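Let's practice the habit of predicting before peeking. Look at the sequence and jot down your guess about where helices and strands might fall. Then scroll down.
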Amino acid sequence: MTSRSTLLLISTSTVYGTGYLDHAEQEIRETLGEARCVIFIPYALKDRAAYAAKAKARFASMGYQCRSIDEFGNAADALAVADAIFVGGGNTFRLLKTLYELDLVETIRRRVEQGMIYLGASAGSNVACPTIRTTNDMPIVEPPTLRALNLFPWQINPHYMDADPDSMHMGETREERLLQFLEENEGPVIGLREGAILSVKAGKVLLKGLRGARVFKRNSSPVELMPPVEIDITF
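Done guessing? Here is the structure:
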């Protein structure tokens, strides 16, 4: 993450009881500002055309031109003209595998460092991290590596869920799984509950949105955060 990087990392594209990206519209508008050309990356879902149509209609309703990266003969050419990209949610493994297959990982990283705005939801937020090791998804395909875009220095767990004290489920809670991650990895993890949003601009990280987040760090007790709050990514 550089001082020029502008990121909006959304836990989920849809919050219960609302429409697609409704809960994040204000933050999307504030992040995009005067940007007009948004390139949508639909690789996390199988039906890319239908996914792209949905995203294009939603961004058009906000006054932004949105084009699928698949509309271009060369994916890198699309990024060359983009003011911003929006990486949609779905399966994180499929998304990352396709980014590597199309040789887009370094291209996206370079363009964001140059000032292109990055918007991600769910899997799109996962791939902005150093790795995708804290995704909730099944590895339905196998990317060449779990290393991702490394635009944001912490790991993210989207759709973070608190344990239900009344549940009879005996499997690990989300918190237990993230603590297991920290047994093997150094980097902090931020669990974003549905409705939580991370805004990164000019080197500052703000937790925004409708709900809070839970921060996990090795050898420390989890820390609860409620929006709006600035996050010190060094703690």
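How did you do? The longest helix spans residues 48-61.
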